[in-house]
Amino acid sequence: MASKKKQTRTRKTTAVAKKKATPKKPKATPKKPKATPRPAAAKPVAKLPVPVPEPVKPAPVSAAPAGAPFVGIASHPLKPATQIEGLGAVEKGQLDAILERYDRKDASLLAILQDIQTINNYLPRQWMEAVCKELVVPRTRIYRLATFFKSLSLDPRGKHICQVCVGTTCHVRGAPRLVDKFELALGIGPGQTTEDMQFTLETVGCVGACALGPVVVVDKQYHRDMTADKLGKVIARMRRSGDGQGNADEDSDEE
Description:
The structure is a single chain. The protein has about 260 residues and is an alpha+beta fold. Helix content is about 40%, strand content about 10%. The strands form two sheets. The protein has a five-stranded mixed beta sheet. A two-stranded antiparallel sheet has the order 1-2. The longest helix has 20 residues, at about 1-20.
């Protein structure tokens, strides 16, 4: 037994000695990445001198002689600026009457524009320039109102204004057919005026008479329950009489 124990001890000691005798393998050191060569710096490009335009000198403005009509530059939002003449004596008197009615206050600018359109059936640029001068207001303020409200027009309109209501109620009751009838009879579309400046066709969202639809308004006179046949008679009567109104009651009663 003792000899066996000695043999096991000697085996252990020899194994330990072998472990100590075997040298450890050195750890592999990581290789450094090769440095990529930097690109050559680009050569600076010589900047060419930028030509500076010469300032434009404004043309000299000569003072207008005393009593000369006011001449302004039209600033129509859809048309180029053009030189326009001032108002005549009659138009100047009409404008003064309108301004005095509202105490020449710019707070009543919308009402002033409405009265000007009542006289001319649209807003002439000569009148707009005169209002700018008399009330000392910028053109942008006047044209902001004139282009915002659909009831105001910057373009000349005909003697008779024909409006077709295209609201929901009138639309489902046949308003598109009335617009087609106007286009065939007058040869114009919505927003257009005949060449003889007699008729202007417009479409409106609602005229506040849904129970009477479809409704056609000619020169502020309402024609209720309109059909294409009734509208043809109204247009024919307008052309014959020249009053542009026809007879709303007669047309509405026809079956």
